[in-house]
Amino acid sequence: MLNLLMQSDFKNNASNTDLKKFRQQSFIIEYLYRNGQASNPELAKLVNMSSPTINKLIVELVELEIVQELGQGASIGGRRPNLYGINPNAKYIISIDIDCRMIKMGVFNLQNVAVSDIITYFDNIKNKKQVFEEIFNRLDSLLAHLNYKTSQFLGIGISLPGLIEAKTGKTYSDLLIDDLSLEEVFRNRYHLPVFTGNDSRVMALGEQAFGAARNKKDVLCINICDGIGMGIIVNGKIYEGKSGFAGELGHINVVDDGILCTCGKKGCLETVASGTAIIQQAKDGIASGKQSIISELVNDNLEDIHVSTIIEALGNGDVFAIDLISQAGAYLGKGIAGLIHIFNPETVIIGGKVSEAKHFLLDPIQQSMNKYSIHRIKQDTEIITSSLEGKVKLLGNVAMVMNTLFEQEREFFT
Ligand SMILES: [Zn+2]
């Protein structure tokens, strides 16, 4: 929130008294952003200050239009206290969710609500140069429509599949454009701070801030898309591993001497339970004579089979589609059984496109876990699908931008 409060020459010119004041105001802003609202006595208690002093700080923030008055709260004896909240439109965040096949983008305010249309379209990130030109075109027109000044934006959050070094945002998924990193390309074009995150980890951030992982300490978020990734929340924090690559669940071995995986190894979970694997199994099955409504849904053009086709077939009670998802679920259950023995999580959230199969996927996962896990540990863990569905990564990007900025500010002040 350096960006909320301060101008760029702040660091050189601020006196110690100013620094102390800004630190307290920064704390107030973060508290209001995360908790929605608070009264002045509550805030005074939080920063350990007298009511008149905190009032002065709040009045300043109201004048800066960062904080707004929300009327009066209930009396706890004596005068009714004033309530304050963040001004939702003080600043905005741009969020871009790059998936293997689908790209989404939108602009969110400080109440984490979209203030623009959410743009969703299909593209294939393998054609990287065109993909980014298309993203720029669409984002430019989205921003032109909103007509906000650059200074009204806090930053851009981008989620994408593949290995991303958490600390540097450096990507390893062949996404360099003209020798520049993704972050550099966006920063040069929009003159804003840019933060990138691995899609599964961003999913976990979204669930943690706004979804089923809220107020929970130990949660695994499994993202089943073209590949299979995992965001890990341990003791309330996202676990990244030494280089930020933790959670490559798709590459644990589940089949002895199985199919060759994109990683070069054989029998990885991804080769039997990812969206890519399920689509391939559907194509192979139908080509070898399996009867299924899937053929009808794609007019016998097997190249048109997507995960959404298989999910549509499930809805029609198609036995072949049910078998495909059951088999994937059985392998996933085996993998998850291993995980819960290690992590003992409170909740496992299954997200990503394949999770739209809902109970068709969850039931075989549960059955397989009954087979492969110790009952006492499994009992502790609920397994659910994401409640945020298609919006989880867009919201996760907002959380990523806000968490990083608040963190940077805390570091600056200590
Ligand atoms: Zn692999």
Could you give a short description of this structure?
With 414 residues, the chain is of the alpha/beta class. Helix content is 45%, strand content 17%.
Bound molecules: zinc ion
Judged by helices, strands and strand pairing, the structural class is alpha/beta
Strand order of the largest sheet: 6-5-4-7-8
Shape: globular
Q: CA-to-CA gap between the ends? A: 15 Å
Q: How many separate domains? A: 3
The name of the CATH topology of the largest domain is Nucleotidyltransferase, domain 5
Low-confidence stretches: none
Percentage of residues in helical conformation:
40-55%
What oligomeric state do these chains adopt?
Answer: single chain
CATH structural class of the largest domain: Alpha Beta
Number of alpha- plus pi-helical segments: 16
What's the β-strand tally? Answer: 13
Note the beta-strand portion: 15-25%
The largest pleated sheet is described as: 5 strands, mixed
> What is the correct CATH architecture of the largest domain?
2-Layer Sandwich
Question: Could you characterize the architecture of this molecule?
Answer:
This protein is an alpha/beta fold. It folds into three domains: 85 residues, Winged helix-like DNA-binding domain superfamily/Winged helix DNA-binding domain (Arc Repressor Mutant, subunit A), CATH 1.10.10; 133 residues, Nucleotidyltransferase, domain 5 (2-Layer Sandwich), CATH 3.30.420.40; 174 residues, ATPase, nucleotide binding domain (Nucleotidyltransferase, domain 5), CATH 3.30.420. 45% of the residues lie in helices and 17% in strands. The protein is built from 16 helices and 13 strands. It has a five-stranded mixed beta sheet with strand order 6-5-4-7-8, sandwiched between helices. Strands 11-10-9-12-13 form a five-stranded mixed beta sheet, covered by helices on one side. A three-stranded antiparallel beta sheet has the order 1-3-2. The longest helix has 25 residues. The two termini are 15 Å apart. The protein binds zinc ion. Zinc ion binds next to loops. The site of zinc ion has 6 residues, from loops.
